[in-house]
Amino acid sequence: xxxxxxxxxxxxxxxxxxxxxxxxxxxxxxxxxxxxxxxxxxxxxxxxxxxxxxxxxxxxxxxxxxxxxxxxxxxxxxxxxxxxxxxxxxxxxxxxxxxxxxxxxxxxxxxxxxxxxxxxxxxxxxxxxxxxxxxxxxxxxxxxxxxxxxxxxxxxxxxxxxxxxxxxxxxxxxxxxxxxxxxxxxxxxxxxxxxxxxxxxxxxxxxxxxx
Length: 211
Fold this sequence. Notes:
By secondary structure, the chain is α+β, with helices and mostly antiparallel strands. It contains 9 helices and 5 strands.
């Protein structure tokens, strides 16, 4: 009877030990950052758990093996997420890069080689009268502007991608209103330095008497 109780308590303790790693894994996944999480510590836990599993196998202790295999699974999840989100470190305790991008004035946007919009800041999509970033992504300039204006934008974008150089130009555009923008456009590159599109910023420089 006593042995049965001890086995039950021991098994429950192993299960609790395993689920204690889940809140940490959930926090990393939810916040998309591993700031404050020691990869060395959790990797050390994982190594210890592995040696205990080996000990359990040698001594034919199935309860120990199963319990610590479960711990290895949850702890391993923490290690995996820590590595996955290690580059999303917050620049301070309450703000991340995406938050900063959303608050920047003017229009910030990026497109692929075909002129398809890949992303932008809030100021950009909201000035088109859209309700969300999702409504903006996938559109082209021909979806957003009259054909003549869209053709000029596309021509400038293609020049930037062809030459690989930054282009500064004034663009007269009609969104919700007619406005004049000073645009800076540069090649958008992948990690290997290949040009995969354009990255642009546009600032409204419309004079008060502009019509």
